[in-house]
Amino acid sequence: RRAVILDCDPGTDDALALWLALASPELDLRIVTVAGGNAGLARTLPNAAAVVGLAGSVVPVVPGADRPLRGAFAGERAVHGEDGLAGIVLPPGPPPVQAVAADAIRELLRAAPAGAYTLVGIGPATNLALALATEPALADRVAEIVLMAGAWGEGNLTPAAEFNAASDPEALDILLASGVPTTLVTLELTAQALVTPARIAAMRRLGTGACLRAACDIMSAVPPSRRLGGEGHPLHDPCAVAWLVAPELFGARSAGLRIECGEGPGRGRTYIDRWGKMPTGARITLPETLRADGFFQLLGGRLARLP
Ligand code: BDR
Ligand code: CA
Predict the structure, then answer these.
(1) What is the bridge-based pairing of β-strands 182-185 and 142-148?
(2) Which ligand is nearest to the CA of 85?
(3) Atom of ligand 1 at shortest distance to CA of 162?
């Protein structure tokens, strides 16, 4: 069982990723840290608490950054709505812990032996970067970092950049420099986890629990992606959790990675070197293919176990 610190910005797909993590016995979720991103922190924090509460979990939910290391979060209202959950209202969750995410992460790492934790980042990487930047020696407590971020081709926030990478490129750069083995779940991978009406209908048939129902309502409320041809929308963040729970669903390779931190139209671009053409930069694991039917079976089966 992996001890996991999960950092998020719920976020419709973040909500599903949280439920998948909470429903998966392979993962021991120790803390959920929250940043602004898809919506402001004033929305993402109560959203995270509500998602955790609906699952009947008592895992601490801790507030973090309401802005990236530079500038401000752009928000992603077109996908997640003003409220961050595409208008689906959940019962309020338990009150968030009175602490700051980066401090809470450092505290857990300090008390742990080497390689004890897996960090999962499914929002702007600000909180995770703040934790490691102020005490870099703590990186040895982390066995692995799994991030939903970046793309080897076109972005979704700008032509050059994916939303999480573009939201805080400096933070992503800090994580890459930590030397911790990192897996990057990109837009090309998550495009294969396409939510269609048929897949939602199949998931609805699996049960009547509140989390499964809310997950299906959320997926139904997200508009189809024009970028992907309008057939459905990509379920980005649950792919990062699925990578840890069911790696056999993925095909992956090793690749090089650099992130563009300059101002201008390329800001937040992830230069992903799949073919050994970029001698400098970090080495990452890059999942490239996903068995989508297996992924949706995993997601539905696990969410059906929740209250
Ligand atoms: C990422 O951006 C957010 O809108 C999603 O929650 C996901 O983490 C996809 O680019
Ligand atoms: Ca997210």
Answers:
(1) parallel
(2) 1
(3) 10
